[in-house]
Amino acid sequence: MIWSLLGQAPVSLAYYKSSLSIYKTKPSTPLNRFSSGFPAPISTPAIRVFCSKSGRVGSMASSVQNQGSISYLTQREAAEVDETLMGPLGFSVDQLMELAGLSVATSIAEVYKPSEYNRVLAICGPGNNGGDGLVAARHLYHFGYKPFVCYPKRTQKPLYSGLVTQLESLSIPFLSVNELPMDLSKDFDILVDAMFGFSFHGAPRPPFDELIQKLVNLHNYEQVQQKSPVIVSVDIPSGWHVEEGDVGGEGIKPDMLVSLTAPKLCAKKFSGPHHFLGGRFVPPAIAEKYKLCLPQYPGTSMCVRIGKPPQIDISALRENYISPEFREDQVEADPLDLFRKWFDDAMTAGLKEPNAMALSTTGKDGKPSSRMVLLKGVDKGGFVWYTNYESQKGRELSENPHASLLFYWDGLNRQVRVEGSVQKVSEEESEQYFHSRPRGSQIGAIVSKQSTVVPGRHVLHQQYKELEEKYSNEGLIPKPKHWGGYRLQPNRFEFWQGQTSRLHDRLEYSPQEIDGKRSSSPPWFSQTFQLTSIPLPITCKKSKQINPED
Ligand SMILES: NC(=O)C1=CN([C@@H]2O[C@H](COP(=O)(O)OP(=O)(O)OC[C@H]3O[C@@H](n4cnc5c(N)ncnc54)[C@H](OP(=O)(O)O)[C@@H]3O)[C@@H](O)[C@H]2O)[C@H](O)CC1
Ligand SMILES: Cc1cc2nc3c(=O)[nH]c(=O)nc-3n(C[C@H](O)[C@H](O)[C@H](O)COP(=O)(O)O)c2cc1C
Ligand SMILES: Cc1ncc(COP(=O)(O)O)c(C=O)c1O
Ligand SMILES: [K+]
Fold first, then answer.
1. Is the pLDDT of residue 199 over 70?
2. pLDDT value of residue 181
3. Which protein residues have their CB within 5 A of the ion that is ligand 4?
């Protein structure tokens, strides 16, 4: 299929025309543009690299190396950055180690879900790299993993004995080298290599030579092996030369490398699928001084993916949902109460925009269309959202006043479907809501001829600017006639709670028939909605208890 392209402007939802030649010069379909444009199934977004502004400064700067815009440090530079952080910049080793260990744990959690990779062995060395491993083990415990620790050469400093006590207080088992099984693959899902970091030199001495060999023996990510645990190396794959990497080619081959502060030179030789950066504590002064180019961390994350994104087999992407049981006898009689309860759960879980819902409409041509809108109110009268009445959805709703709403609360493994008939809300209600919005959004609603083609972004921006000036005096911005709310009055709800092996819980509420007639006058659902097929007064069944792949 040959596709034409209509770009969508960012500020408004009007479209602007864009050259179609993009498909002539780049013979790709929208689908492969999509898959090549998005790096990974993991939650980290595309990498944006930030660099210090000035040129190279300081004595060591000339040896800071970049590969694809990201800086790599030599061993000496890494040690010096460390010293600067802990000297003039006032950090303590405890602080940095805590943040480093947390970065390692969050990187692991981004890729290896505790439901599948639960048993973690952290092998910790005598220095700070080992300390990072101890901290990571503690965080992993709190994230739902089952950690074990092998810490054969303990350091007698209070920082380290404190970390050990903390782990012991969580009943995390410490295993001696002798207690480790010959073959680590049966007992662990993740092996955290926290033996050596950037101060490693020479050849590994006992007992670490043997431990490194255990990792070498069991794992080579290039070989497809069933049931092989993954290796996550902290900062440096232990045994590798800090700058040259795996010189003899016989070292460990981690699946994941979590570089700390900035990757060291050996990381250029890392060819495993998951390279992350952690240690979100580098002040601009350090980045500037050492001319560090580092990726931006997304949102509030403690880690960011760097390096090539892994090749994704989309067909293999799946989650096994593990949730508390959602039972018929636990639900509310009124689906609205259950909706509110689940909405509160989504808020409490800190989900982003839990009020975002997919709205599906069909016009008289019967062709469905869906888009996201924001729920702005829910009560006995129904579910309310606001939009442009002249948009595609507005046109379709005028032709066919029935719609479906869909909420998906990732993280809670929950989905709610709501279907019903739709009416415009009153002008007064729309007025009131319109004026509660930020002034920028009010102007945006005037500017945006939603779902129409416009000549370019500049037109929108120009109109926006003019209106901004016009209404700069804090006066009322008039609501355009074509902007307002809709209210969907539900006639069907389905609450879905994901469960293991695709045997999900699905409960459907549909209107009860009284004397052979459907109740139709609101507010009726608190009384007359029923969960299909439990004996009255409230009936309930797992609707369509469904084949396992539903
Ligand atoms: N700012 C940061 O980047 C931070 C990094 N952190 C982590 O700290 C490590 C570096 O820690 P450091 O203590 O300097 O060094 P190591 O953990 O690499 O290990 C040093 C110990 O290892 C011994 N060692 C060295 N070589 C060998 C060997 N061939 N065989 C056996 N033992 C060896 C060494 O003993 P020596 O007697 O040989 O000196 C030390 O006992 C960094 O990589 C990060 O992971 C911080 O946690 C946070 C800030
Ligand atoms: C999370 C999210 C929330 C949105 N909320 C609204 C909204 O409340 N109202 C709205 O008109 N458009 C909203 N949009 C934009 C719509 O998805 C859509 O692009 C626009 O309304 C035009 O749709 P149409 O051409 O199908 O009518 C939202 C988009 C997203 C991603
Ligand atoms: C075009 C459009 N209209 C309305 C909204 C809802 O915005 P508000 O929360 O300001 O009503 C959104 C939200 O993304 C939107 O994109
Ligand atoms: K390591």
1. yes
2. 92
3. 193, 233-234, 236, 238
